[in-house]
Amino acid sequence: MTHSLRMIYNKNTIKDAAGLSLAKWYNKVEDAGFKSFNTIAVTIYEHYEEILNFFINRSTNASAESFNAKLKASRASLRGVSDIKFFLFRVSNIYA
């Protein structure tokens, strides 16, 4: 099951073909009855259109998520920022 889901992302380059493959995968998961895969299958079903948008130009927001994590880590290490302008200045110098 895991391999077939991975292959959908590796092989499909067209949104419609990926949608069809995801629907077939979803049906296989329902028929197999694996409880652990049911959770991911429901998530895919609920976010179907958003997931298929990946296949338009095959890009994700991973870099934005990574930057957000770095910001949160630096903010946590400061244990509260009293001067917001200085904080933004440091962020722009470190990550720009």
Which properties best describe this structure?
7 helices, mainly alpha, 0% strand, single chain
Describe the structure.
The protein has 96 residues and is mainly alpha-helical. It has 2 domains: 2-57, no CATH class; 62-95. Helix content is 81%, strand content 0%. It has 7 helices and no strands. The protein has helices spanning 2-11, 15-32, 35-46, 48-52, 54-57, 62-78, 84-95. Helix 1 (2-11) runs antiparallel to helix 2 and helix 2 runs antiparallel to helix 3. The radius of gyration is 20 Å and the shape is elongated. The protein starts with a helix and ends with a helix. The model has no long low-confidence stretch (mean pLDDT 84).
How is the secondary structure organized here?
Blueprint: H1 2-11, H2 15-32, H3 35-46, H4 48-52, H5 54-57, H6 62-78, H7 84-95
